[in-house]
Amino acid sequence: MPLDLILNLGLPIVLIVIGYLVGRALEQRHYASIRERERALQGVIALNTRFVPVGVKAHGSQLVSGGVVVSSDHFKTFVAGFRNLVGGRMRGYESLLKRGRREALLRMKQQARDAGCTLVIGVRFHTTRVAGKQTPAMEVMAYGTALDTRAE
User: Fold this and answer.
1) What DSSP string runs through 30-51?
2) Tens digits of per-residue pLDDT, 16-38?
3) Which of 9, 16, 55, 80 is 20 to 30 Å from 115 at the Cα level?
4) What is the C-alpha separation between 124 and 76, in angstroms, rounded?
């Protein structure tokens, strides 16, 4: 009987703890990668304005985009299930969306830099829910018009 109790209660708890630890480690590693790439791409300016800023000479335009699908880990999904019962902010999902937006923006800026552009205007985000209820995932797409502002 005690072995059954340990297996029935202990195993789910162990799996939840492992999910939390692994998810946290992967999230921290991803944030470190994001910070590093944000420093590397800080020369590519992204604005949500529709027009080229006054005083900026720009030529050559092209559409650039960056997309990412991010998935929640099982621990966040487990905690969100409890949060659904009582209501309130779902901070785990908020961080998931924040990571997704930052990653999509970085991919868009990288595409602009690869095209030789230093400015992206008209930046917009589009978010879509992907997958089923078991493991929520979101697609985040960032897009805009890349302009070359280097002297001709």
Assistant:
1) HHHHHHHHHHHTTTSEE---SS
2) 788 788 878 888 999 999 999 99
3) 55
4) 27
Residues 77-130 pLDDT 10s = 656 665 566 666 666 677 788 989 999 999 999 999 999 999 999 999 999 887
142 close to 65: Cβ distance less than 8 angstroms: yes
Q: Tokens for 41?
A: 């791409």
Structure tokens at 5: 């109790």
pTM for this one? 0.80
Q: How is 106-143 classified by DSSP, letter by letter? A: HHHHHHHHHTT--EEEEEEEEEEEES-SSS-EEEEEEE
Q: CB atoms < 10 A from the CB of 45, how many?
A: 18
